[in-house]
């Protein structure tokens, strides 16, 4: 499995660099173009979940204790698990769906279409299932009834949001600002109330992140089994998140799209991890009020992730609000709720989805080679005056 993920990851990263260098001036425009800030907010909130907010505090000690990670500091390791190389996969798939898929139509081939959308449905429900299983560790001992009530509400809001694009965009932007507010409150509390670290402590931690770039080569293949799990997880998400955000690309040149998708999301990640690292270094226990603030933001992030995937497979399979009417909401709600309940009795692993997605990548590469004339035509069309190559599918 390590050989498979290493080869696939390296191939995707090389492809992303090739696209930036070879087709950097191609104009990319999706079906529902939005401003850059809204676009990055949709990407940031759809591509991440509650783990971003809560996990680092439990992972820093593990990275510090594990010999395999001793080549750098725990903060750089954490950033490497979520950082720029991961977002390069999202960029590559977004570029494909904006520029190439309208001509190639690979994801309209029945077998590809159904395998792909089944992985989207499975990953969507599995994300909600992980949220269900992890929630007690974030909010303490609560009854099963309370846990399921929260999960049902999350699914219901996600389904509603998936059918209302304006609400989805509003939620993405709002949750981004909530995350910014959380980071500001957390750093001020850590720097001046719970310790004397000051803002100099944050600046010092940000400096530690330079070690990530100095050790970039370590992150292109699995460092440990845990890192391998992360890579399979990101691969599972890479095509679906890329396709989702491709709908909202607002006429950016390829190199600007790369900056918006690789660099801009990495900045708030770096700041947030540096803030949490103060709590780790100073051995500050997260106070209850801050924990609930973190949990609230994390739950909204889960909604953002789920609504994007529900909308995506709904568009791909024609299960849209426009087509289904009032049936749209119960269909998606009970489908996701049923799968979340089923996951309690199955040995499902995200690595399986990752392997399937790697297979989809291989199929796309092979078919692009066979249809290289269409690839050239798609790029030439996107380079034209209109520059309005559109991703496949249509919004409801």
UniProtKB/TrEMBL annotation:
The chain crosses the membrane at residues 6-24, 36-55, 75-99, 111-132, 138-159, 171-194, 231-250, 257-280, 286-306, 327-346, 352-369. Keywords: Membrane, Transmembrane, Transmembrane helix. It comes from the Bacteria. This is Choline transporter BetT, short form. It comes from Sinorhizobium sojae CCBAU 05684.
């Amino acid at each position: 499995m390590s050989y498979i993920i290493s080869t696939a990851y390296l191939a995707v990263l090389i492809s992303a660099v090739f696209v930036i260098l070879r087709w950097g001036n191609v104009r990319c425009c999706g079906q529902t173009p939005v401003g850059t800030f809204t676009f990055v907010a949709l990407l940031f909130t759809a591509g991440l979940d509650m783990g971003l907010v809560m996990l680092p505090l439990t992972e820093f000690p593990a990275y510090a204790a594990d010999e395999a990670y001793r080549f750098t500091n725990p903060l750089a390791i954490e950033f490497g698990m979520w950082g720029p190389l991961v977002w390069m996969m999202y960029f590559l798939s977004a570029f494909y769906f904006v520029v190439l898929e309208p001509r190639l139509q690979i994801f309209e081939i029945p077998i590809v279409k159904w395998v792909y959308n089944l992985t989207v449905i499975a990953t969507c429900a599995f994300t909600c299932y992980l949220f269900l299983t992890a929630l007690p560790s974030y909010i303490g001992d609560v009854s099963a009834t309370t846990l399921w009530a929260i999960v049902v509400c999350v699914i219901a809001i996600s389904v509603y949001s998936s059918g209302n694009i304006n609400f989805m965009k509003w939620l993405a932007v709002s949750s981004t600002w909530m995350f910014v507010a959380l980071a500001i409150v957390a750093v001020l509390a850590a720097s001046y109330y719970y310790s004397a670290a000051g803002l100099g402590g944050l600046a010092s931690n940000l400096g530690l992140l330079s070690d990530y770039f100095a050790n970039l080569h370590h992150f292109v293949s699995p460092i440990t089994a845990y890192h391998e799990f992360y890579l399979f997880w990101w691969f599972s998400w890479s095509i679906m998140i890329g396709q989702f955000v491709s709908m909202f690309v607002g006429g950016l040149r390829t190199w600007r799209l790369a900056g918006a998708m690789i660099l801009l999301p990495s900045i708030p990640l770096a700041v947030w991890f540096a803030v949490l690292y103060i709590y780790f270094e100073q051995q500050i226990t997260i106070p209850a009020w801050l924990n609930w603030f973190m949990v609230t933001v994390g739950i909204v992030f889960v909604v953002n992730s789920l609504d994007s995937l529900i909308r995506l497979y709904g568009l791909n399979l024609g299960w849209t609000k426009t087509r289904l009417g009032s049936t749209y909401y119960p269909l998606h709600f009970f489908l996701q709720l049923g799968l979340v309940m089923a996951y309690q009795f199955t040995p499902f692993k995200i690595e399986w989805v990752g392997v399937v997605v790697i297979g989809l990548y291989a199929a796309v590469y092979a078919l692009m080679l066979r249809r290289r004339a269409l690839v050239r035509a798609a790029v030439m069309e996107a380079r034209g005056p209109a520059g309005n190559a559109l991703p496949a599918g249509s919004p409801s």
